[in-house]
Write a structure and sequence with these properties.
Two copies of one chain form a homodimer. The first copy, chain A, is α/β, with parallel strands linked by helices and 372 residues long. Chain A has two domains: 105 residues, RuBisCO large subunit, N-terminal domain (Alpha-Beta Plaits); 253 residues, Ribulose bisphosphate carboxylase, large subunit, C-terminal domain (TIM Barrel, Alpha-Beta Barrel). Helix content of chain A is 41%, strand content 18%. The first copy, chain A, is built from 15 helices and 13 strands. In chain A, the strands form three sheets. A five-stranded parallel sheet of chain A has the order 8-9-10-11-12. In chain A, strands 2-3-1-4 form a four-stranded antiparallel sheet. Chain A starts with a strand and ends with a helix. Chains A and B meet through helix 3, helix 4, helix 8, helix 9 and helix 10 of A and helix 3, helix 4, helix 8, helix 9 and helix 10 of B.
Chain lengths: 372, 372
């Protein structure tokens, strides 16, 4: 089947039962009936039932199973694609979603990133080095206080200044007031330095609320926004990415707890395919537990060449200390966002100086090792 | 703190490190900064930073940790509530979301079920026994074929006839044509039997698409609809449940296994709080692996008395054979939806007779053991 969705699972089953288990998994995800019943209709048998294409050992009682579903089963709908990949199977603890390969025609209805790496670089005015980012925090500060932080970070030369993902539309810090104050602070810094940072407001809520926030932020002058797709819904990311009057989006991994889906599939492939221009994920050695191979695989999936959609910027984060910047530059190369939060805040009164030192260090390192 | 969100995690950490780990978890989920930095602002220290209220052993290197967050941190937003409960922590494999208790004031902005058990019973015209349901399948059948099945099931006396959750808006079976055909078939059956079944269309897609499907279905005469909240986004469920012109909703658990969360919290509590009138979940002994305690806990959470919101109907499913109906009646009692799919289809030409026998059996069993 040339125009197929190919999905690979790691399945726990003994060797003498894996063929049967793989067949059941394929049927579960599409027709949800035993083959004998589903195939009573010849059109269903021919056009809806896929094939188990490959089964190979992957450890003790583990097998890597690749299933091909006809592209028509996805119905041109990102939500139905999720059903097909990991709808019911997500409830079966012996199944881990391991990889997905889509045919080119899937990108007739999957938008991919609006701006991609080149677009974000152009917005930020940064070439040849990673974009430097931080988060405004903690939750609880009033708009004027967050704006003062944004101004300091902007004057110190950061490229992206995003809301913490926990900054919602709190009574003590309403979305609109925060966005206006932070954008004003960025304006002021630009007048002072001649260089414009990008303030990235956090869109959060049910879709109607997020749509209002997006419209407000765009109208107020924001050029990039952030969303947590696993909180607000992955198909909604597609809707946002395809809006004629949308914004490029950073995606935060909150609620993405991926016990049984390999992080590179969810954060690397699905987030990019569904429209994230940059994807935040926990880098090895911080407060989270992804290992180096996982981080590398996420970055590779985000930046891989693709005939139909733009590449996305990996944004490693999650407790990265300023002192580790050299290591991250080596690990990710120039095409990434380096997101440093708490480690800058540790400086307190020295926030400007510590941020400035980070910017200079990364700029110098990039100049010393020019990259294509 | 009386007006607190109380969230319990099972955390893997040795006894001599659990106090530190619990404190870090509490900070991670709200202010996302070390205490010393976040508490520089006295208002943040007093109003945003919660407390670790309880830590108790829960197995070898396991502890059950209860954290109280001030309700204000949720910002009156269901999406931000998810962040607070399991945003970043979902990415930490040593943390499992185990339980959540909300203060009454959270239900100022969490809608709960639109119709609840009483409302669904009234719509279905069924008292004193479980509602009987099936799913239209397989994906691939044209609207006329699905409608013929709906008509057969309705004449045989089923109460709820839902789309399979994989029935999207496929080119070979467009949503609108399917809804119209199935509702016509239900009308015809009603004229024949004098009794009206409820056809439950599956709403699926990005939010804009789902909103159009909902409006169409309601206008066409559907009285209940289905959605997969983990596919389309949990906060979107709240939006749908709070719509002035919405419909009662059955919630399907597809894609719900992505999270390291105890199923009773996700499917029992969050699904109900966010607006599901009935929640489908895999019953023990079918194609999935929930055990009896998990199923019982889900059902209890859905039906528990609550001062602010309606109870929801548990809808055990996932490969329940007709022969197991007696066991399920004993297990769940009358307040549930018994969802039988493939086991009815096994009958092929005898579909009407097999369905009719199921209805009679459940009706007789309920009459023999009248329940309050």
């Amino acid at each position: 089947m040339p125009d197929s969705i190919r999905v690979t699972y790691v399945v726990q089953a003994p060797a003498d039962r894996i063929a049967e288990r793989a067949e059941a998994l394929m049927l579960e995800q599409a027709v949800e009936l035993p083959r004998a019943i589903a195939a009573r209709d010849p059109w269903v048998a021919e056009h809806m039932i896929g094939a188990v294409e490959d089964v190979r050992p992957a450890g003790r009682d583990l097998h890597r199973v690749t299933i091909a579903h006809p592209i028509a089963t996805a119905g041109g709908d990102p939500a139905q694609l999720l059903n097909l990949l990991f709808g019911n199977a997500s409830l079966q603890p012996e199944v881990v979603l391991d990889d997905v390969v889509l045919p080119p025609s899937a990108f007739d209805w999957l938008p991919g990133p609006r701006a991609g790496i080149a677009g974000l670089r152009e917005l930020a005015g940064v070439a040849g080095r990673p974009l430097l980012a931080t988060a405004l925090k903690p939750m609880g500060l009033r708009p004027a206080r967050l704006a003062a932080l944004a101004g300091t970070f902007a004057r110190a030369g950061l490229d992206l200044i995003k809301d913490d993902h926990g900054l919602a539309d709190h009574a003590f810090c309403p979305f609109e007031a925060r966005v206006e104050a932070c954008l004003r602070a960025i304006d002021d810094a630009e007048r002072e330095t001649g260089r414009r940072a990008l303030y990235v407001p956090n869109l959060i809520g049910a879709p109607d609320r997020v749509m209002r926030q997006l419209a407000f932020a765009r109208e107020a002058g924001a050029r990039v926004a952030m969303v947590s797709p696993m909180v607000t819904g992955l198909p909604f990311l597609c809707q946002l990415a395809a809006l004629p009057d949308g914004l490029p989006l950073m995606a935060h991994p909150a609620f993405g707890g991926v016990l049984r889906a390999a992080p590179p599939v969810l954060l690397g492939k699905l987030f990019r395919w569904f429209g994230a221009d940059a994807v935040i994920f926990p880098h090895v050695g911080g407060r989270f537990s992804y290992d180096a191979d996982t981080c590398r695989a996420i970055a590779e999936a985000l930046r891989a060449e693709h005939a139909r959609i733009r590449p996305s910027l990996p944004a490693p984060a999650g407790g990265i200390r300023v002192e580790r910047m050299g290591e991250l530059l080596d690990f990710y190369g120039p095409d990434c966002v380096l997101l440093v939060g708490g480690s800058l805040y540790a400086a307190d009164d020295g926030l400007f100086e510590r941020t400035r030192a980070l910017v200079e260090r990364v700029t110098r390192a990039a100049a010393a090792e020019p990259v294509s």
